[in-house]
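Appendix B. One record, verbatim.
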Amino acid sequence: MAGIDRGRPGSPSASGFSPSDFQNSTGVSRETMDALTLYAGLLEKWQKRINLVGPKTVADLWSRHFLDSAQLASLIPPGSTRLVDLGSGAGFPGLVLCILTGLETHLIESDTRKCAFLREAGRAAGVSAQLTVHAKRAETVDLPPADIITARALAPLPDLLSLAFPFWGKSTLGLFLKGKRHQEELTAAKYGWYINYSTIPSRVDPDSVILSVSGLKRSDTAGSP
């Protein structure tokens, strides 16, 4: 009996979630799937040289990384034009959202090797015109306010809000993928920030949420709990 080649980007993942399952779950076009498949193939190629994602998650690219990122697309308000992704790493969620939405996208990543990958993946996916990769720490990047700010597995919420604040405008929406300790992080953030927020269950991990943040302001009561 022939085995499934887990190393090919078009094959089912270890969890059984295939590219076809991703397309059925998201309703993306064939052209978008082609772009994402090229991206996935490059990631698997580059992963052999540099650590782009956790080695144990490579076999679950389409669920653990692509679907986890894509679930944010439906939360982006109509009329949004500029997205800033903090700590982009391998491009999750920022590059996936650029491919899905066509928004002007700024990926901020301090690791120059990962930035080289992001640029090549953007070219392969056909989104170079919309994409800017900043090989810098977020604290040193100067950009106009963003409509959308995203981040995934970057920092605890109080620190993440500090990184996001320079890019925040009156109508900015933050979409942050957070794990099971999100409630603790929200409690800690109250000592430095005023925010309006809602939590949306993750479609990928029952212990995770999407934290939707608006109205970010510094608090006059900043300090330790």
